[in-house]
Write a structure and sequence with these properties.
By secondary structure, the protein is mainly α. The chain has helices at 10-35, 40-61, 69-93, 99-106, 109-119, 127-148, 154-176, 182-203, 214-241, 244-247, 250-265, 272-288.
């Protein structure tokens, strides 16, 4: 898949959008499962090593190669922010924060995108987006009150929220750069973040053993292949062809999938206040993205 496609068909964009939503809806749960057997920062490192190798091979096999010059600089910045900052923050946060709740906090991404895009003069912001941001922040506050009452550590909640801001900055950095092959860009991004996560893992004195057992390997491989090779390649391709803010409708759908899977598979139960706060967050996102208005689009 090349970012250089002049004008991809609506069917291709829709397919990529749906696939990205379904994969990301599941990865929050799989991260939580992986954290049960593999230390978080070491888990990120393994994921990126596997994904980076596969992406590099695919980039050269398809003739894309690796980015150079300004494109490579933006790919590195994207990798540092997304895989070197957002990933470790999310993995560590999910050690104590339920996967479904982490996904709800990620639903604030589209509004953060809108506000940052406006501040950086990439895209304009509307009054509805500001109102939506305020509503979502109220929802986040309600979530925090509910989870803190259940002794969920504040640092873990803040880590999950901070990871969303890092992810937004990563996407905007990639969008601001020249259009490039997304396989090579993600390979470089993984390579840039591997040493960051390994150093964090070493400083945290995590054991560096390979996963043992089918469940552990499945979680790591799923996150590397479906998550990094699949969803993030699709995402950077979508970003190359559309507005980051408009694509952010994905962030509304992902929590619904993640909450369902977290409840059914991992038997997660959220505080009543957290459920109410989650609904408020999603309402704020819907208002901010002007869903239902003519011309509104989706995706994170």
């Amino acid at each position: 898949m090349s970012a250089g496609d002049a004008s991809p068909s609506p069917a291709r964009i829709t397919t990529a959008f749906i696939a990205c939503t379904l994969i990301w809806g599941s990865t929050f749960l799989v991260i939580s499962v992986a954290n049960d057997t593999v230390p978080p920062f070491w888990g990120v490192t393994l994921r990126l090593v596997i994904a980076g190798i596969v992406l590099a091979v695919a980039a050269f096999a398809t003739g894309q190669g690796l980015p150079t010059g300004k494109a490579r600089a933006h790919a590195i910045a994207y990798g540092v922010l997304q895989f070197g900052a957002a990933f470790p923050l999310l993995y560590w946060g999910e050690k104590r924060v339920p996967s479904g709740l982490a996904a709800v906090l990620y639903a604030t991404v589209p509004l953060s995108s809108a506000l940052l895009s406006h501040w950086l003069r990439i895209e304009s912001v509307t009054r509805k987006r500001v109102i939506g941001a305020v509503i979502s922040l109220i929802g986040v506050a309600v979530i925090f009150s509910g989870e803190l009452s259940r002794a969920v550590p504040l640092p873990a909640l803040l880590a999950c929220l901070a990871s969303t801001l890092a992810a937004v900055c990563a996407s905007l950095s990639f969008k601001a750069g020249p259009r490039q092959g997304v396989l090579g860009a993600n390979a470089v991004a993984c390579a840039a973040a591997i040493p960051i996560n390994f150093v964090i893992s070493a400083l945290a004195r995590e054991p560096h053993a390979l996963p043992s057992g089918f469940g552990s390997w499945f979680a790591v491989l799923y996150l590397a292949l479906a998550g990094s090779v699949g969803a993030f390649v699709l995402w950077t391709w979508l970003v190359s062809h559309g507005s980051v803010t408009k694509l952010s409708f994905i962030a509304v759908l992902v929590p619904l999938i993640a909450l369902t899977l977290g409840t059914l598979v991992h038997h997660e139960h959220l505080a009543t206040a957290s459920l109410i706060g989650g609904v408020v967050v999603l309402i704020g996102v819907a208002v901010g993205l002007e869903l239902g208005s003519r011309g509104s689009a989706g995706g994170h």
